[in-house]
Amino acid sequence: MSDNPNTDKNRPLIGLAQTLGQVQRLVALTGAGVSAESGVPTFRGPGGLWRDFRAEDLATPQAFARDPRLVWEWYDWRRGLIAQVSPNPGHLALAELEGLIPEFLLITQNVDGLHRRAGSLNVLEIHGSIWEVRCTGCGGLDEDRRTPLPLMPWCRNCGALLRPNVVWFGEALDPARLQMAHEALRLAQVMLVAGTSGVVQPAASFALWAKEYGARLAEINPDPTPLTPYCDWVLQGKSGEVLPLLLTAMRQNN
Ligand code: BV8
Ligand code: ZN
Fold it and tell me: Which pTM does this prediction carry?
C-alpha cells in the first residue's frame, strides 16, 4: 500500500480515515496476523506449526489431559518466543487510535499480551493470556512470566498441576468477557477487523453481529477471508504497514 492517496488501492484507506474522524464508538478485533510482524507465528499460516502439531491438536483440554508435559512444552516454547519480541507498528497504531476515538474497545483473540505492551488500555483478551496460569485443583489464578517455566508448574497453594489460563478449543469463553464484547458490538458504529482468518468461533461471528446492529465493517489482511465480502472497506495489506498509514491519513484529514 503506497502513501499516494490517489491510487485506487488507497481509496478505501482514505475513506475509512475520513469516517473514523467522525466516529464515536469503534470496536477492533485482532487475530494472530497482527502479531505476525513481531515475529510471532500465526496459527494457520507458514510457521504456524510446532514440530508437526497443529494448534487445534494441542490447545484442547483432551490434549492436556493426555499429555500435559507436551502441551506445556508448546506453551513454554511460545512464551519464550513472545518474551523476546516487541509490539510492532500495527500494535502501536492501535494504541494511538484508542486515544483518538471517544469509545474504543480492542477485542483480541491473541494471548500474547502485545497490545497491552504497546499501550492499549481498553483490551478484552477473549481467549485469555499466555502469561496467566490457573490451578487445575483449586482454580487459583496467577500471573507467571518465568521463561523457561519449570516444565510442569505446580500450584503453590494446593500442589495441583497448573494450566495456561487460555481458552482451549471446546472450552467456553468467559461469559462476562463475551457479554462485554457483545455490548460493544451492539453499539459500535464501525468495526475494524485485523489479522484474523475468521475461522475460530465465536470471534469469527463478531463482525457479522456488529453489522446486524448497523455497524460498518473494515478489514485489514493481506489475504481475503470469509468476512471480506461483508466489509465496507477492505484494506489489503499487512497490519504493521496499513494501520500506521491509516493513522497518518486520519491526522491529515482531521
Ligand atoms: C467454543 C487460545 C463452545 C489458545 C484459541 C468442531 C469441533 C470442535 C469445536 C468446534 C468445531 N467447530 C467449531 C468449533 C468451535 C471452535 C472453533 O471455532 N474451531 C475452529 C477451528 C473451527 N471454537 C471453540 O472451541 C471456542 N469455544 O466454541 O465453545 C462451548 C460453549 C459452551 C460450553 C462449552 C463449549 C474456543 C475457541 C478459542 C480457541 N483458542 N486460542 C492459544 O492461543 O493457545 S484460538 C486461536 O485461533 C488463537 O486465539 C488465534 O488468535 C485464533 C484465531 O486464529 P487467527 O487469529 O485468525 O489466526 P490465523 O493463523 O487463523 O490467521 C491469521 C490471519 O492473519 C490470516 O488471515 C492471515 O492472512 C493474516 N495475516 C498474516 N500476516 C498478517 C496478517 N494480517 C495482517 N498483517 C499481517 N502481517
Ligand atoms: Zn491450587
Answer: 0.95
Q: What value does the mean pLDDT take over residues 121-146?
A: 98
- Nine-digit cell string for 19: 469516517
> What pLDDT, on a 0 to 100 scale, did the predictor assign at position 3?
52
Round to whole Å and give the CA distance between 91 and 38. 9
**216-221/233-236 β-pairing:** parallel
Second-level CATH architecture of 41-84+128-166: 2-Layer Sandwich (3.30)
Which ligand has an atom closest to residue 132 CA? 1
Q: Domain 1-39+86-127+173-254 is of which CATH architecture?
A: 3-Layer(aba) Sandwich (3.40)
One-letter amino acid identity for 157? N
Residues with CB under 6 A from ligand 1: 31-34, 36-37, 42-45, 48, 56, 59, 109-111, 127, 166-172, 194-197, 199-201, 220-223, 225, 238-240
| Grid cell at residue 207 | 463482525
Does residue 205 or residue 51 have the better pLDDT? 205
Average pLDDT over residues 242-246: 98
Mean pLDDT computed over 43-59: 79
How many CB atoms sit inside 10 A of residue 239's CB?
28
Q: Which of 34, 40, 43, 193 to mutate to test the pocket of ligand 1 (most atoms within 8 A of CB)?
A: 43
pLDDT for position 237 = 98
